[in-house]
Amino acid sequence: MKKILALIAVLSFALVVFAADKGPETIDLSKSFNYEKTTKKPVMFPHAFHQTKVECAECHMSAEGGKELKNINTGDILKVTKLVGTANDVHKEFCWACHKAKKVKSGTSCNKCHK
Predict the structure, then answer these.
(1) For residues 84 and 93, what is the distance between their CA atoms, to the nearest angstrom?
(2) Distance of alpha carbon 21 from alpha carbon 100, whole angstroms
(3) Please, are residues 90 and 83 in contact by the beta-carbon 8 Å criterion?
(4) Which residues of the chain have pLDDT under 50?
């Protein structure tokens, strides 16, 4: 039993190290989208956490990740033309689309992400 627990611990650590090598732990989305005049607190996107839940290609256009994000609804490159208000492109085409598809509890609640 102890050997199994030790193996699980080693594999978990290796997974975290591997995931940490694929981008920053957190990302300030207001800076990523060049929008620093937010009315709510900027989203500090927990990138490392999301890497434990989804594959890179679910959010990015490339399986290796990168800056080109995917429109979750269409699979095309995310084009942000509206970044004001609740019904903005990032909410509708990226964050909320994924949270709804994956049935994330309170996944469209403002306070879940804008902390």
Answers:
(1) 14
(2) 28
(3) yes
(4) 5-7, 10-11, 14-17, 19-20
pLDDT at res. 5: 42
> What is residue 22's predicted lDDT score, i.e. its pLDDT?
80
> How far out from the chain centre does Cα 98 lie?
9
Q: How far apart are CA 22 and CA 36, in angstroms?
A: 25
Q: Where does 52-90 have alpha helices with state H?
A: 89-90
Q: Rounded to 5 degrees, what angle do the CA atoms 96, 97, 100 make?
A: 75
> What letter does residue 57 receive in the DSSP assignment?
G
Quote the pLDDT of residue 12. Answer: 52
Alpha carbons 42 and 22: distance in angstroms, whole number: 23
* Cβ-count burial 58-84 (b if 16+ within 10 Å, e if not): ebbbeeebeeebbbbeeeeebeeeeee
